[in-house]
Amino acid sequence: MGDSLRTLKGVGDKTEKLFFKLGIYDTDDLLHYYPRNYDAFEAPVDIADLEEGTVKAVSAAVCSGVYVTSAKGRQIITASINDSSGKLSVIWFNMPYLRTVLKRGSQFVFRGRIVRKQSHLEMEHPEVFTPAAYGEILHSLQPVYGLTGGLSNKTVTKMIHQLLKNLPMYSEFLPEEIRERYQLADINYALRTIHFPGNMEELLLSRKRLVFDEFLLFILSVQMLKEKSEETPNYFPINKTWTTEQIIENLPYSLTGAQLNTWHEIERDMSGQALMSRLVQGDVGSGKTIIAFLAMILACENGYQAALMAPTEVLARQHYDGFLRLQEEQGLNFHVVLLTGSNTAREKREIYQQIASGEAQIIIGTHALIQEKVEYHDLALVVTDEQHRFGVKQREALTTRGNPPNILVMSATPIPRTLAIILYGDLDISIIDELPAKRLPIKNCVVNTSYRPKAYDFIQRQVREGRQAYIIGPMVEEREGLDAENVLDYTRKLKGIFPSDINVSFLHGKMKPKEKNEIMEKFAANEIQVLVSTTVVEVGVNVPNATVMMVENAERFGLAQLHQLRGRVGRGEYQSYCIFIQGSDEETTSKRLDILNKSNDGFYIAGEDLKLRGPGDLFGIRQSGDMEFRIGDIYNDSAILKSASEAAAEILSLDPDLSLEQHQALKHYLLKRQENASDGLGL
Predict the structure, then answer these.
(1) Dist CA 506 CA 531 (whole Å)
(2) Can you tell me the distance from the alpha carbon of 76 to that of 91, in angstroms, rounded to the nearest whole number?
(3) Which string of b and e fits 497-506 if b means at least 16 CB within 10 Å?
(4) What is the CA radius of gyration of the chain?
């Protein structure tokens, strides 16, 4: 635990609350709040050489008046600038003071994103520097942090500067031998340099050390969990039952060979002597949910309870509704409850009582299932959905209530097997690598921005046929909450393009959970036909009627993430389409996106993505969900992941419980980290 944020000069009640929103509760959290990206301040270029989709600096003079107009509650500031090669329009939002700063004829350096408006290029929301001020930061790397409304990058940078200035030295916890073998920087150097690197070399060096630490500590936690679970007998004797066989027979579709293999592995595990710890990896739409339901029914048929934990309320409700439907179709009669943060206090009390007495047999919910107040009667099976959104500690929390239950983990994140074995070292792995027979493959196309009007026409035709569409809004830098703003802008624009009877709405990460749920429920009910969203829909509700996924700035996402997004469509009986709009014409970009165009196989895509990535792809969008990693990315950093796995195996073979003197500091650090993780869960 670090010191209170109030010990920093300039942090009062208001700023502290904004930091809390970002999950920063003390100075230690702030120190480990790494930049999400870095701004490389390169030499200005000529206006004539600017390209759409890039962030560039130009040294230019103001050649027009500065105009302030209002539209939809926002002030829009426009001006024209020029250099010897040409002229450029510039636009800002809600910065009226610029009117007094930007005098006609004055020279500045403008740095911002280049976008295309109609037929001409424009610079959007640039930063403005005097030539002297820009000269001072030229060729440097400046940190860009994830923000929340009201907290600027400048404030975060200033606080971290202050913290580092007064920070005592950390004691080194990695054995010297490991540091030397894997060429790892000193921990103090890494913590300072990750925030303010002098150059790319320093950044890569500090990042390598911090990523290695994250992976090593994660793997050690997982391996120690494995040892614990291997020693644990199965307290819940389970016999196979006819009920599950009958359900499989009576389903309106046949299970694929891969589904049946996985089901037999689960059945064998649950009726064995040792506790089950199994990961089911299956591509989006491969039919993992029915397998989870069968496992839960098997537990209940043997007189026990089963719980399913989903990462969002919307997804939990969907599983709840899905189980009730299956129950009705198959003539089953289990007592099912739904437990989420939205339940009233009275509802919660009733549900807690039903769980504690054993009346509730099937419990479906969010992380509310692992709150202290929940006492299970005889929980024999825990299913966690979308594991990459849950950490090891959350999994472990569910296993500490009474006798430890069997664990089944479901993941739609296509991780190549080599990496999955490292990351899920405590779990046996089943892979569902076949799609259901009736499912039509998604038709893909990768196009440039000139295709946009045709895409809108196509979406409109699909809506007229009764279908729905997702549009992932154009990405912007996460500066000053622009991500949300951008989605709102894009929604307004679409409302002007589509006829008024087509309901266009939006979804972004800054919305309250209740608002997100409402929007997703309306979309599921076809009250909204076109949903403009950030990537928050990546793990979302199942809408079989949605047949179009259009992704703006597709080049700015990892392939694995694009594949996850694509998996939101193609879930029903209708032909589905995915349109990837590319904002940059770079050859490497086209090559990457072409992999998606050619294949709908998530495991193949993840493997190819892995091959294509180099050290230059370190920054920008994170690929691996939340998987407890603040800085490591399992795709980009797969080489470091393998090194950390080697080091962990070596340490544990020599010293399984980290009792040797050279591992004391590492053990202390690991335990401290696990404690903090448990505190974060409210356990």
Answers:
(1) 5
(2) 7
(3) ebeeebbbbb
(4) 27
The model's pLDDT over 427-473, given as tens digits with 9 standing for 90+, comes to 888 888 887 766 788 898 888 888 999 999 999 999 999 999 999 87
Residue carrying the six token digits 């950044």: 203
Tell whether domain 232-432 is in CATH 3.40.50.720. Answer: no
Q: Which CATH superfamily is domain 443-599+601-617 in?
A: P-loop containing nucleotide triphosphate hydrolases (3.40.50.300)
pLDDT tens digits, 263-318: 999 999 999 888 888 889 887 778 899 999 999 999 999 999 999 998 878 788 88
Average pLDDT of 167-177? 87
DSSP 8-state assignment for residue 442: P
Instruction: Provide mean pLDDT across the span 43-48.
Output: 94
Instruction: Give the pair of three-digit tokens for residue 228.
Output: 């614990």
DSSP state of 631: S
CA-wise closest residue to 644 among 193, 201, 220: 220
Report the DSSP pairing between strands 107-117 and 55-62. Answer: antiparallel
Q: How many other CB atoms are found less than 10 A from the CB of residue 496?
A: 7
215-238: b (≥16 Cβ within 10 Å) or e: bbbbbbbbbbbeeebeeeebebeb
Q: Would you state the structure tokens that stand for residue 659, as one six-digit string?
A: 């009792």
Check: CB of residue 291 under 8 Å from CB of residue 440: no
Cα gap 271→239, rounded to integer Å: 6
Topology alike, domains 48-138 and 443-599+601-617: no
Per-residue pLDDT band at 588 (split at 50, 70, 90) = low
With CA atoms as reference, report the closest residue to 191 among 644, 631, 618. Answer: 631
CATH of domain 48-138: 2.40.50.140
Residue 664, SS3?
Answer: helix
Which residue ranges make up each domain of the chain? 48-138, 232-432, 443-599+601-617
How many Å apart are CA 533 and CA 483, to the nearest integer? 10
- Contact (Cβ atoms closer than 8 angstroms) between residue 316 and residue 541: no
